[in-house]
Design a protein that fits this description.
By secondary structure, the chain is an alpha/beta fold. The chain is built from eight helices and seven strands, in the order E-H-E-H-E-H-E-H-E-H-E-H-H-H-E. Strands 3-2-1-4-5-6-7 form a seven-stranded parallel β-sheet, with helices on both faces. Helix 2 links the parallel strand 2 and strand 3.
């Protein structure tokens, strides 16, 4: 695929590992100059070193608007522009004991997820749009989840936050499209990362039950999510705007589910 990304200036949040790392790697391999951010300082620096000279690390907690502004001010000061922004940073409950019905759902967990997944995405979008409006160009991709598309059980905070990200993406596309800025969303299904390994895929019975709801009968790989992002920010996706690209192996197309 001809991406047209050589020399483009890109930022990927939450990129020390997992999906974010795979996205940063795909962008760098396509010739983009990538700044990755994460709250994991040591791991973020190691990831940037492993991915090579096109990638640098800037620590950032996206739930802190001052840190977010500092991240994007630094990128623009270094490069003079911002062409691509991928807002991937996000959290969810990872312990089985925290996955409970709404009457027992922790308010502390609710606020923590909202502060990172929804508020943090907003802070990043605001800073990115401020620069892209000046340029009258740019591409933003927000990483949501199928949890924002279908009502998954026992994780009401994550469901609400990701649904908000999808609707925010659509609103931004309407606002910013006339200014030459495209805003899209990717909603991964169950993807093989450290968190899902611990929660689902280390137990054979749980893993088999989960993939039974996926027509392709397997979890996604991080490079498959990265491929969707690469398409949306590339020349190949130049007429894609306000779209939520679901990458889930067919899970949400109609299979029975109780997750």
């Amino acid at each position: 695929m001809q991406t047209g990304l050589k020399g483009k200036i890109a930022v990927v949040t939450g990129a020390a590992q997992g999906i974010g790392r795979a996205i940063a790697e795909a962008l760098a391999q396509s010739g983009a100059l990538v700044t990755i951010s994460d709250i994991q300082d040591e791991k973020g620096r190691a990831t940037a070193a492993e991915l090579g000279g096109n990638v640098v690390f800037h620590p950032c907690d996206v739930s802190d608007p001052e840190q977010v502004r500092g991240l994007f001010d630094s990128v623009v000061a270094r490069h003079g522009r911002l062409d691509i922004a991928v807002n991937n940073a996000g959290i969810n409950t990872s312990r089985p004991e925290d996955r409970v019905t709404v009457d027992r759902y922790s308010e502390e967990i609710w606020h923590r997820i909202m502060n990172v997944d929804l508020h943090g995405t907003f802070y990043c979008c605001k800073a990115e749009a401020a620069q892209m409006v000046k340029q009258q160009s740019g591409a933003i991709v927000n990483i949501a989840s199928i949890a924002g598309v279908v009502p998954l059980r026992l994780q009401v905070g994550f469901v609400a936050a990701k649904a908000g990200v999808i609707r925010m993406t659509e609103a931004m596309a309407c606002e910013l499209g006339p200014m030459g800025i495209r805003v899209n969303c990717v909603s991964p299904g169950s993807t093989l990362v450290e968190g899902t390994r611990q929660l689902f895929y280390n137990n054979r019975e749980t893993a088999e039950r989960l993939v039974s709801f996926i027509p392709q009968r397997r979890p996604g790989e991080t490079h498959e999510i990265a491929g969707a992002v690469l398409f949306l920010v590339s020349d190949a996706g130049s007429y894609m705007n306000g779209h939520n690209l679901v990458v889930d192996g067919g899970w949400t197309c109609g299979f029975s589910r109780d997750f």
